[in-house]
Design goal:
Blueprint (H helix, E strand, L loop, with lengths): L9 E2 L12 H6 L5 H8 L5 H7 L8 H4 L17 H14 L4 E6 L12 H6 L12 E8 L2 H5 L4 H28 L3 E4 L8 H7 L3 E3 L5 E3 L6 E8 L13 H8 L1 H5 L11 E3 L2 E3 L4 H8 L11 H5 L8 H12 L4 H12 L17
Antiparallel strand pairs: 1-9, 2-3, 3-7, 4-7, 5-6, 8-9
Helix pairs in contact: 3-8, 5-8
The chain binds iron/sulfur cluster (2 copies).
Amino acid sequence: MRTVKSPNLRIVGEQARFDQRLTVFNRAARGELGEKVRQRSRSDYPDALGRALAGRDRPDNSLIHHLIPAVDGPVNPQRAPVDPTHISWKVKQLARFFGADLVGICELEPAYIYSHHGLRCHVDMGVYGQPVELAHRYAIVIAREMDLGRVRASPSYILHAEIHLTYAEVARTACQLAAYIRELGYPARAHHLRNEDVLHVPLAVKAGLGELGRLGLLITREFGPRVRLATVTTDLPLVPDRPVDLGVQAFCQMCRKCAVNCPPKTIPAGEPALVRGVEKWAIDPDRCYTYWRANPEKWPDCSDCIKTCPWSRPNVWYHRAATWLAARSRLSHYPLLWLDDLLHGRRPNYKVRWLDYSKDW
Ligand code: SF4
Ligand code: SF4
């Protein structure tokens, strides 16, 4: 992969920290997206599988809920001497051993730490609304692939199950890796969906896992946006990776497939906008989330943008050849997109009958 000095994003001002209380999930729960969305955001999933993986009313039934306190723990007082180059290699090997598909290291930038706590677990801990204090030097970002077939079933209950199964797996990987680092004698804290202080996507871009796409998610060379992320922050001395240039920003300028296929037209088809000091495509999270909650009898959320993105295809030799070409030649982008449209359609309509899981099961 072609590495670059800094991420392929135009940073044009101060990157202000983001208040976790302002995420769309919090605003929806407070009723800022309307009463119907508020009620639906607070009610539990109608299917048993969804409740087992991410339920609200009986969270003890979900594995990830038990990983909330597992993000941190005691540090071994006997610190092992480490060589930063060797331990960086080893940490990546162990992340894969624990279940990561991709892993990268970067320095922890304060702009990518939430300014204030705003998760449900923070209410229980009595720190909701308190400033986030996190002084670690490095971030290890971990990605886990989501199953292609289940993503192609978007929007559906089986897609929802896949999302939360992957979140639980990447959370377990991060907690296990953080525990390993603490046993080496260095502070380390895992950050996952249910207990996190950092924004994973910009850290993943900085750590060389991929680039930011028009759809507002990380696009990796291997799996496109079809991944879920977790992070470990630590003071273990590490060697950061460099960001990569996959050609994503240039490809997105021309492609717009996610914008065409987003049911509520949440993803901009035009030019990037300025968001907290960075020029990027800004999706409308309110419209996205409202669509997730629009029809609880049929789906609990959506990944239509992920399933239609040309970078989401199976990680086989011809996909790797296409992404290799896209990273090196802007001239290849038009024929590659034409080919993707030919093979998958401009508006892909995948038939995934064998995954016919419904809420009635
Ligand atoms: S998840 Fe669905 S609604 Fe949200 S941006 Fe993607 S396609 Fe649009
Ligand atoms: S679908 Fe096209 S425009 Fe959207 S993120 Fe993927 S490559 Fe970029």
